[in-house]
Amino acid sequence: MTLTLYGLKNCDTCKLALREITAAGLEHNFVDIRSDADLMALIPVWLKLAGAKALLNTRSTTWRGLSIQDRQLAESEPAAVLIANPTLVKRPVITVGGKLHVGWAPAVREAVLGPAA
Fold this sequence. Notes:
Layout: E1 3-7, H1 12-23, E2 28-32, H2 39-50, H3 52-55, H4 61-65, H5 68-76, H6 78-84, E3 93-96, E4 99-102, H7 106-113
Helix pairs in contact: 2-6, 5-6
């Protein structure tokens, strides 16, 4: 079963997740959400599975730079804002075994890598 990690090449959290996934010997693909991902197809599915609250990175520089109107739009139409601003996607987004994981918190790490030895 192949794992797909969606993220940014220069994202420290994505780099850490990739290092740990590689060290665990898991087969994986990396997809850059800015240049290689079909966000028009992916974002609606991700929103349905994870929800806007989990997927929208409101702590990012991009979020802080958004206008009030765009922030309000993110509440009513999160897909449009996320597609237009891929760096607003909380990273990494990991798909494996039909499941979607967002971020690299300990619970996600354990779900992807298995329990720590």
